[in-house]
Every structure is written in C-alpha cells, then in structure tokens.
Amino acid sequence: MRDAYHEELDSIGDSLVEMARLAGSAIGRATTAILDSDLKLAESVIEADQKVDELQHDLEARAIALLARQQPVATDLRIVVTSLRMSADLERSGDLAQHVAKLARLRFPQRAVPQDLHATILEMGQLAQRLMAKAAEVIITKDVDLAMQLEQDDDEIDQLHRTLFQHLIDDRWKHGIETAVDVTLLGRYYERYADHAVAVAKRVVYLVTGEHADELQADIKPVTGVEGA
C-alpha cells in the first residue's frame, strides 16, 4: 500500500514536468506564430492548451484523493500541497501562451508586432521558454541552487519589458494605437509567464527546504564590507 502511495506521489511529479514541457513548447510556438503571422501554428497552440488543462484537473483529482485516503503529514503533505500550487502556475502559463497565439489569430493576416520590435519579442519568447525548461529541470532534480537562479534570469525579461515601454512612449512611435495596445499586452503576457516559471521554482525550494525562497535569499546575502582592522 505504501509503495503504491509513493508511486502516486511520483506520478504527480511526472505530471508537473509534462505540464512544464507543454507550457514551454507552447510559448515557443506562440512566439513564432505572432512574429510570422502563422495562423495554422497559432490555432495549434490554442488547441493544445486543453491538454495542459486536462493534466491540471487530473493532478488535482489525484492529489485530493491522496489527501483523503492517506492523510499525509510532514514532507509528504508538503509535496501534495505544493504540487497543487505548482500545477496552478503551470496551467496559467499555458493560458498566457494561448493568449499570445490568440492575438496572432486576431490580427491575421496582418502582423501584430512591428518589424523594429521583432528582435525584442523574439528574445522575450526565447527567454520565457528557457525559464520554463529550467523550471521543469528544477522539478525533476529538486536543485535548490538552480531554482534560485531563475529569479535572476527573470530580471532579463523585466528589462526587455521596460524596453518595450520605452518604444511605446517614444515620440517617434509611428505604428498607431492598436499596435501599441497589442505590444503592451504581449509584454505583459511574457512577463507574467516568466513570473509563473519563477514561482514554480520557488515552490520547489520550499518543498525541499521547508523555507520560502525569499527567506533563504535573505539568509545568504553576501557580506559587503569587513569591519575594522
């Protein structure tokens, strides 16, 4: 019975990894769809989000059944509860990738992103996909050091998001209000996607250590000076 119980715990972890991989693939393909105005690819991303939703619903049902049947305590309870929270982050990531694809579909056959912002959006999409790949690796390996690195990687997305806004408020902006709204939305989608990837990694830190990532970061701040000689 206990072997079956721990197999079920492991299977919940496997589902989280699959959700992360699907969400990572989705944001990569959605980025291509928005930049290339690829309607067929956009539609495939929109449809594929159902699989992420199904995985979350299945994971929730299994986790709740485990709580009811086994009444886990200590570390096992932390695994179940944290997994439920991670699944919500991953499901939301899939939704955000779908939003990018829906914008590509809405503007087809036109392109939602002006040519002079292609490089920025492409970089945001690539960074978002890499963040989610790292989050998946963190789920598998339970590597706390790698998990803590994700927040630094997220800073790059935030910087690119600020770059988009600099373009929008520049007096030389010539692409109109509709495109400005589209670019604003895209920047927000990528930023929030990255935030969810970071949240997944932080939850793994809590799962492994029993401490929140922010508390651990405060504990290991480098010393900036040495007193007196």
From TrEMBL:
A Pfam family this chain is assigned to: PhoU
Keywords: Cytoplasm, Phosphate transport, Transport
Major location (coarse): cytoplasm
Gene Ontology BP term (one): phosphate ion transport
Matches recorded under Gene3D superfamilies: Phosphate transport system protein phou homolog 2, domain 2 (1.20.58.220)
Superkingdom, taxonomy of origin: Bacteria
Subcellular location(s) per record: Cytoplasm
UniProt keyword annotation of Glycosyltransferase present: no
Domain PhoU residues, every copy: 16-103, 121-204
Record's GO cellular component terms: cytoplasm
Subunit annotation: Homodimer.
Protein's job: Plays a role in the regulation of phosphate uptake.
The family this protein is said to belong to: Belongs to the PhoU family.
Protein name: Phosphate-specific transport system accessory protein PhoU
Source organism of the structure: Streptomyces yokosukanensis
